[in-house]
Specification:
This protein has 155 residues and is an all-alpha fold. It has one domain (2-144). The protein has seven helices and no strands. The chain has helices at 2-8, 11-18, 25-50, 66-86, 88-91, 95-116, 125-144. Helix 3 (25-50) packs antiparallel against helix 7 (125-144). It is elongated and about 55 Å long.
Length: 155
């Protein structure tokens, strides 16, 4: 717990948590939401296409959207670490946080597999379905962090 408290006492952690500036918590949270929209949004479009939506669209050009997915993932990762440090004692002691991380890890593995197999046939449909389920699980677990387990400061 001492280490988690030290994370919360970092300058950036205190600033994000305690500052009234629009550039603190609101901006970091906005960036986290933007990254999520980029990563999950691209994944959603590709997964729906693999599952048969827009069947007249060829799959190989969808490869061009993966840099947007990965940029969103890294925006999410950096903003997520900042948000995590600001509330480390509540987030890192909450089992829901680890459920969220597991869903994200699975979604990343599936996205890499999908990206590598976007030929004309595409990956198996179950992979696209699993990808959708993982993103839905990660988003749901992320939202539930605010309501389940130890509660930190409300923003």
């Amino acid at each position: 717990m001492d280490f988690l408290r030290q994370l919360e006492q970092l300058g950036i952690s205190r600033w994000v948590r305690e500052s009234g500036s629009v550039f603190a918590y609101p901006t970091v949270l906005f960036l986290h939401t933007l990254g999520l929209a980029m990563a999950a949004g691209v994944s959603l479009a590709v997964d729906v296409r693999i599952l048969g939506g827009g069947a007249d669209l060829p799959l190989p050009p969808f490869r061009r959207f993966f840099p947007v997915l990965w940029a969103g993932f890294w925006i999410n990762a950096v903003s997520g670490v900042i948000l995590l440090c600001a509330a480390a004692t509540t987030k890192l002691t909450n089992p829901v946080f680890y459920v969220k991380l597991a869903f994200i890890a699975a979604a990343v593995v599936l996205a890499r597999r999908i990206s590598a197999s976007l030929d004309d046939a595409g990956p198996p449909k179950w992979i696209a379905g699993a990808s959708l389920a993982c993103w839905a699980g990660a988003i749901t677990a992320g939202r539930l962090l605010a309501y389940l387990g130890p509660q930190g400061p409300r923003h």
